[in-house]
Specification:
By secondary structure, the chain is α+β, with helices and mostly antiparallel strands. The protein is built from twelve helices and 18 strands. It has helices spanning about 5-15, 50-60, 95-105, 140-155, 275-285, 315-325, 330-340, 350-365, 385-395, 400-405, 460-465, 475-499, and strands at about 65-70, 75-80, 110-120, 125-135, 160, 165, 200-210, 210-215, 230-235, 240-245, 250-255, 265-270, 295, 305-310, 405-410, 425-430, 435-445, 450-455. A hairpin with a 2-residue loop joins strand 7 (about 200-210) and strand 8. It starts with a helix and ends with a helix.
């Protein structure tokens, strides 16, 4: 921790923390400054700046809005609105997960997926069990398993006398990230120490003269191994579109015929990722001339001779991709791995999320975050703009986290940069139905660096959505556009007033 970070945390302790948030009492709930500062020269024009209250009113979002903008160097609050109101962060939570993983695992950490021999190998025969052991790698895909199968062949192994075991390597198995989501949403898969293709299976259908052909595979750009674990049946019904049932060794899907049209495809979540990875590896091993029995899940600790060791990219690169593409599985796996590395007892996402909440309070000076997961998919998580800005100022405007965040260039209807030239906006967005968030850093080479967080949510409207409507509820997309437009206008205001 640098001296500058110590200074930031000391400032924040006085400005943002404490019972009742008295430090924020002196900050306006919304700025009353009507105009931007004039330029140099007596004839420089005064540029009007819309008031925050008028921007919020014009957005017509309903629900609640919380924001804080602060000086990035000192932590001084420049403007705030409902600063201690806790709202769901959605995927903005991933920014804190990234920092949590960086501090707990280190930026150079790599996740290992290994093939272990539980016995002696003689003349190409393993006298014992072969184990596919996960290590929490969220980037493992079918191409990587194909490479591991080729690596296994290169060892000279041709035959396995015992079982083929799959194991998750110490991370808990989580059936799904958020139980309130519809079963068929691919961004809500199971989480484990052994994951494949972000724990998604590809469902493709084509209409034929006799009905439909259906294909379930574990595709990447290079490979398309078919999968028997996930099975699809077409049913003559109107609703629901999809149903799911766990059949033990199979995952049984049905789809309404009327929803299929002439053809198409989509990703579906996998709930038994260990067996999924095992089946796909078995296919690739067979292609290499290595016959394996069907995979068996084993939760016992595994030790043996390492035959193949597949290392993931560095954590810093994994997190950069996570923040860019907002991958929920990556957030959950890295968050769980961070908690385990810190010595926490982790039986599921809730326990690990509470550990991350405690870390955010103790290490980053955030007053009262309450996470239920690491991805922000669960809408029971709560964080205030004060929590978020406190943490981001503590981490620092020149931090690794700031560099990993996606660079965003908001533009107006004419394509003009809303924040002007010479400014860099690095931020994490977050969206759920009737929930929107944005938090990050505005860096200015010539002026003041700003740290901000904006959270909006219409929770009564969100709660009124039926389970069947949760994938695309009426009005949610338009609400999100309005929320995002408000965020850009608030940022434009702050840059002109304080930047």
């Amino acid at each position: 921790m640098t001296d500058r970070n110590v200074s930031r945390r000391t400032v924040l302790a006085g400005l943002l923390a404490g019972a009742g948030q008295t430090a924020l009492a002196g900050a306006p709930q919304s700025s009353l400054v009507p105009v931007a500062r004039p330029g140099v020269g007596a004839l420089a024009p005064v540029v009007p700046v819309a008031g925050a209250d008028s921007l919020i009113k014009a957005a017509r979002l309903g629900g609640k809005i919380s924001y804080v903008v602060a000086d990035g160097a000192t932590g001084k609050v420049l403007e705030a609105h409902n600063p201690i109101l806790g709202l769901p962060p959605a995927s903005v939570a991933k920014a804190m997960t990234a920092q949590y993983a960086l501090e707990s695992l280190g930026q150079d950490h790599r996740f290992a997926t290994r093939l272990l021999a539980m016995g002696d190998v003689e003349n190409g025969r393993l006298n014992g069990d072969l184990v596919l052991l996960g290590g929490g790698d969220p980037t493992l895909d079918s191409t990587a398993l194909a490479q591991m199968a080729a690596g296994l062949k290169a060892t000279g192994l041709r035959e396995v006398s015992g079982r083929f075991l799959v194991a998750s390597g110490g991370l808990p198995h989580v059936h799904q990230i958020d139980a309130a989501q519809p079963a068929h949403l691919s961004y809500n898969p199971a989480v484990s120490g052994l994951n494949l293709n972000f724990n998604r299976v590809h469902f493709e259908w084509k209409k034929t003269s006799g009905g439909y052909t259906v294909l379930m595979d574990a595709r990447t750009v290079k490979y398309r191994p078919q999968v028997m674990l996930a099975q699809m049946k077409i049913i003559d019904r109107g609703a629901p579109v999809y149903t799911y049932a766990n059949g033990g060794g199979t995952e049984r899907w049905t789809v309404a015929r009327g929803a299929l049209g002439k053809g198409g495809s989509r990703w579906l979540p996998v709930r038994q990722p260990e067996l999924y990875a095992g089946e796909v590896f078995q296919t690739f091993a067979r292609a290499q001339g290595i016959k394996l029995p069907g995979p068996i899940l084993d939760t016992a600790p595994m030790t043996g001779t390492v035959l193949v060791d597949r290392q993931s990219p560095k954590l810093v690169d994994i997190l950069r991709a996570m923040l860019k593409h907002s991958t929920n599985l990556t957030a959950e796996v890295t968050g769980l791995s961070a908690s385990v590395a810190r010595g926490a007892t982790v039986g599921g996402l809730g326990q690990s999320a509470r550990e991350m909440s405690r870390w955010m309070r103790d290490d980053l000076g955030a007053p009262n975050p309450r996470f239920v997961d690491h991805s922000g998919l669960g809408d029971k998580s709560r964080i205030s703009a004060t929590d978020m800005v406190s943490a981001l100022v503590s981490v620092g405007t020149d931090s690794m986290l700031a560099s990993l965040m996606k660079k965003i260039e908001p533009r107006d209807s004419k394509g003009k940069l809303m924040l002007g030239e010479g400014r860099s906006l690095r931020a994490k967005t977050g969206t759920l139905n009737f929930v929107s968030g944005l938090a990050g850093y505005v860096n200015d080479a010539k002026g003041r660096d700003l740290v901000f967080a904006i959270f909006s949510a219409d929770l009564p409207r969100r709660a009124a959505i039926s389970r069947a409507e949760r994938e695309r509820p009426a009005g949610a997309r338009g609400w999100s556009r309005q929320a995002r437009a408000l965020q850009w206008r608030l940022l434009e205001r702050w840059v002109r007033l304080y930047g």
